[in-house]
């Protein structure tokens, strides 16, 4: 059954990041009032009944009590808490169709993460935010009760609260604090993208303490015991977000949902000593999954399994139903034109109808409600006719909007005239160019950009998003790259042939339509060529402002990192020996391939495996230690590219290195076998194109 979702805008805040939206539920997941609210109803009925009998008996026997309870259910709505990049923590609720602010903190450092906490088994209504290296806690009334300085050298990237236990992670370090006292620490060579801990329950987890779970950029999920890795779950994609299945880990409290780059989602059972992959599949788009939540959207009290809600950075929201075997099945989707940073289920606009609560990068907070359209506005009846008092209110609002539009127009003209005057002064007196410095600083804007490999398409996806409309973007590259079509890209592209002596290999301009804040481009490089791709972003601002973003194009950019290496293929080997450190050998690999960690792993010997996404799946293995590096690949071209690039690097660094290249002729045949299906497909495509042109010519001649 497909739900009819209607969008209702609630608020607009500053730009947001992932995991900065939470819902405080006043009802349980099945829609009943919570214990605290239910006892209040009993007390009220007891008072009204004159003191005869217990509250529970009055609820059962009192005439019309079910109708009263339904009315209370409708009025009991959930509350929203949002943290934005301005450092503002905002708590709000909906009453009578209006958004009411319960509390709002002053601006401060950007809020990176938001988590709800409280005593285990009670309502989680205390807000914990990570900003910089500090964790702050706020009560349900907005009073700050915690200011914990983690003393980290880097900003906190991930935060998880479980009772009095606090789990935080920076880029490469993980810390576990128990009642604000450090209990364990773990250092990771790859980036830590998300963290959580498995809930502790009596009976099922006897002898097992708090179990942290880390999602890392090396395509693994790491399960820890203190500072020790118990085991790792290898994945095909980079996990970006973790979430407890059914919000509590499922029936055994150890099931975890994970979302990945390229749109993969999975469910894994994390046992004490081993793991079991329950389900892993592709979703409806290649967008990176940014948020996951579980909530029963059908609103059926007999439905014990909540639905799985996922949001992506390409604006797609997907709903999956869960059967009795814990298998996920796609139900429906909703397309938003902005990146999704937060997604929760709840009853915010109405206490009866469930809805999706969404935040976007640009700061929009809206709900996708299942409430019928005629019921969203209380001034409309079921036939859609306006009540007389509502007509007066609508006329007043229209008049107010017209006055605001006139005021905005006047202020915009005044602003444009002032900026034009300042620009003229700055051009006439160059030495006093700082006259407009204080004004142009107000025009600074942030860019939410991603440059990620799409292995299914063997290309890079470059996405750019601003909080303000984009006027146009300019792509400039000093190495030849191919621009591929994007289905949802409405921008008009114009490519300029660069001059021979300019040093440019690509100049392309994307002109956007009005009110476009996000756009995507797809780029495919040629392996063996490397350089820099620059993106010049120009928003619709006065005065004209531009921001430049740079992205490295690496020699083997179309290779992805994998966990396993096929030893049975014929291999070509490149060996380097000399007086170099393991850190230098690691830097050579990082200059040649993507998905290599910035830090060198703390080991005497390091091994990485890679696979090509373009030429049929040829492999590469890099094994290096102090004074020795070995590269093995079944593709001779890969070995030659590595030899040429590393030779140039060591020559510039004046490092003495002895290079030996061992060629296996059998590898050439094996490589051609891998590439042949793609060549055959391209040949058929060219043949079909020629036939289509011939048929089109015959149609024009004889018809």
From TrEMBL:
Cited InterPro entries = BBS7_GAE_dom (IPR056334), BBS7_pf_dom (IPR056333), Beta-prop_BBS7 (IPR056332), WD40_repeat_dom_sf (IPR036322)
Query: Which Gene Ontology BP annotations are present?
Result: cilium assembly; intracellular protein localization
User: Which Pfam families does the UniProt entry name for this protein?
Assistant: BBS7_GAE, BBS7_pf, Beta-prop_BBS7
- Where in the sequence is the signal peptide annotated? none
Q: Which UniProt keywords apply?
A: Coiled coil
* Domain BBS7 platform: residue ranges: 559-662
Q: Which residues form the BBS7 beta-propeller domain?
A: 74-370
Its Gene Ontology cellular component terms are:
axoneme; BBSome; ciliary basal body; membrane; neuron projection
Q: Which residues form a coiled coil?
A: 387-421
Q: Which residues form the BBS7 GAE domain?
A: 445-551
Q: Which SUPFAM superfamilies match?
A: WD40 repeat-like
Q: Which domain of life does the UniProt lineage start with? A: Eukaryota
What name does the UniProt record give this protein?
Bardet-Biedl syndrome 7 protein
Q: Which organism is it from?
A: Meloidogyne incognita
